[in-house]
Amino acid sequence: MALPAVKIGVIGGSGLYQMPALTDVQEYTISTPFGNPSDALLVGQLAGVPVAFLARHGRHHHLLPTELPARANIYALKTLGVQYIISVSAVGSLQAEVKPLDLVVVDQFIDRTRNRISTFFGEGIVAHITFEQPVCPALAQVVIDAIRELNLPDVTLHPRGTYVCMEGPAFSTRAESELYRSWGATVIGMTNLPEAKLAREAEIAYATLALATDYDCWHPEHASVSVDMVVNNLRKNVTNAQAVIQTAVAKIAAHPPQSKAHRALKNAIMTPLDKVPPATLEKLRPILAPYL
Predict the structure, then answer these.
(1) Does the active-site annotation cover 102?
(2) Out of 24, 154, 214, 274, which one is annotated catalytic?
(3) 50-100 tens-digit pLDDT
(4) Choosing from 102, 145, 216, 274, which is the catalytic residue?
(5) Is 216 a known active-site residue?
């Protein structure tokens, strides 16, 4: 089956395993040089716009954060021609002003992972992407505008914030949570930073919509985070998240954001391409195509 051409991808995190508003859905199982993605990619129409949806942990949530095939996920979206990714993620709040059920459009990350591969490069080719702004500001602004336009009841928008990406799967200790708070971090999760790095290497604009579900374990007046707490709040948040995505997708289609991410490799590749092993060039062809 020939693959469709899709410019917008959505990665759904915990609780967001499908998009009911997605119509005319076709499933595509895409194998990559980095293994299989988390699940089949669901390609359909959202607000009349072609969209590819991927459940980050699989539709039955069978993948630990450490087990996520992030390279395969981003590579598969790239092979469809995706230029924009909206990543939806459940997070714990590290600050009192970010309440459970609030929405945070993240603009910075801190990496606390230990067991993740978050680059496509190696095996004879070296590249160093610029990552000062780890999400695309233009795409993030589209998500912010979508939330403001919807004026969702009982939802507070935080238009910026720093996301600590921890290894997991256990939640934080109290000492860790207090440390991250002392750094000024806003929220904590287990998945988005490897995605952001790989999306930048793949020259895809990337933005995170973070759904606050709990206060991690630092808040003296709230119970420590548990799966039940996360799931209950996620159910309340998912409806809002889907409305935001649908509005944002329509905005992207109407006025595609100009993103520096789309030329992220222009000055990043250190190795002369004629010195790169042919097998490596072939493996990375969807990513390196503009420069071959």
Answers:
(1) no
(2) 214
(3) 999 999 999 999 999 999 999 999 999 999 999 999 999 999 999 999 998
(4) 216
(5) yes
